[in-house]
Amino acid sequence: MPLGIYVHLAFCPYICPYCDFAKWPYRESSARRYLDALVAEIEREAPQPAATIFLGGGTPNTHDAPTLAALIERLRARFGPPGGGTTEITIELNPELVGPGDCETYRRAGVSRVSIGAQSFDAGEVRMLGRRHSAAEVDRAVRHARDAGIGSVSLDLIFAVPGQTPRSWRASLEHAIALDVDHISTYGLTVEAGTPYAALQEREPNRFLDDDAEAELYGIAIDSLGAAGYEQYEISNFARPGHRCAHNENYWDNGEYLGFGVGAASYRGGERSVHTRVLDEYVEAALSGAPIPGESERLEGERRAGEAIMLALRTAQGVRPRLFKERYGIDVFERYGPVIAEYARAGLLENGEDAVRLTRRGRFLANDVCGAFLSFA
Ligand code: SF4
Questions:
Q1: Residue 318: how many CB atoms within 10 A of its CB?
Q2: Are 259 and 275 contacting, i.e. CB atoms less than 8 angstroms apart?
């Protein structure tokens, strides 16, 4: 089984009102201490080969490029593949912080993929999301990545932003396509409890899009990106041939991964664990060599199989019963026959010879369909 490495860089230049991630506003002294803690945690782990490394956040490039390059060197030394082959190394970038020469530094450190947080090319929507970058800064970040020779360039876009219309969403998609990037992720905005957005929704519910309006935008993304040659290989992810994100594919394949940093999750040997989201607790434990506080649970038998189905259904290839039987010892049709039949009758699942997949209509209701498998387990 390939192993994925995730490293959480928890600081941001400012905090977006919809964000529910483990993140803090950047302060140099805390950021430096946090990096020391991360390195201490990484060096505790036995050296072993990993197929992918992903630096996410937070905003990784709140740290300067040489600092990130030094971190990547350490990660490669510990988790590089035998013989120094090609590990996919991704870094998430905030476009406004990408300086001249940064991408060159990342590429020299081994970065093969950058994921740029564009979110939207409409200035009003970008402000509504609490972001401060301009469309020109996204264009420039893409150009820097290309000029530096980064092999895969991805953009993140958000739909169902308050005030967004089919026309403005189409324009954002067209702008992303015109930049000729290799990969585009489109995420529907979710309002998480406890965020400033949740309070705004409480006060002004009409500013937020309803399910039908959101579905219309999702349909526009599927059609526009498909027509431009991007394969929808997962519910929210579209790639040109050869540019799928291997790191995320490993998650959807129920593969193993190790997460480093505050709030980071790992899945290894059937055990899923997640670190504390309390920054000081994490930093103190990592620096002192104590176990990192957090929670863990064992996923076994039917529960593990239910999770695996739920993840696989997110992907275009779907659940492949023969492989599933080999891996989990469970006959998908025997075990989940009634759920498959019910959703196939409703036109949400396609029950082919070699795979069970979401139909186009099923992709719009993916959470309901996937959840049904989990609760049936
Ligand atoms: S940049 Fe990302 S992690 Fe940071 S506050 Fe905004 S959404 Fe959250």
A1: 20
A2: yes
Does residue 269 form part of some domain?
Answer: no
Nearest ligand 1 atom, CA 94: 1
Q: Is 12 in the pocket of ligand 1 (CB under 6 A)?
A: yes
Nearest-atom number in ligand 1 for the CA of 12 is 4
Rounded to the nearest whole angstrom, what is the distance from the C-alpha of residue 40 to the centroid of ligand 1? 25
Query: What CATH number corresponds to the domain at position 149?
Result: 3.20.20.70
Task: Out of 23, 127, 128, give the residue to mutate to test ligand 1, the one with the largest number of ligand atoms within 8 Å of its CB.
Answer: 23
d(CA 293, CA 278): 9
What is the rounded distance in angstroms from the CA atom of residue 51 to the CA atom of residue 56? Answer: 16
On the CB side of 219, CA atoms within 13 Å amount to 13
Q: How many structural domains does the chain have? A: 2
For position 128, what pLDDT does the model report? 96
Which DSSP helix (H) or strand (E) runs through 23?
none
> In a mutational test of the pocket of ligand 1, which residue from 19, 133, 161 has the highest number of ligand atoms less than 8 Å from its CB?
19
> pLDDT, tens digit, for every residue of 68-80?
999 999 999 999 8
In this structure, the answer to whether residues 240 and 357 fall within a common structural domain is no
Give 326 Cα–ligand 1 centroid separation in angstroms. Answer: 40
Same domain flag for 83 and 14: yes
Ligand 1 contact via 24 beta carbon (within 6 Å): no
* Residue 265 forms part of a structural domain: no
The pLDDT tens digits for 323-339 are 999 999 999 999 999 99
Q: Which domain holds residue 335?
A: 301-376
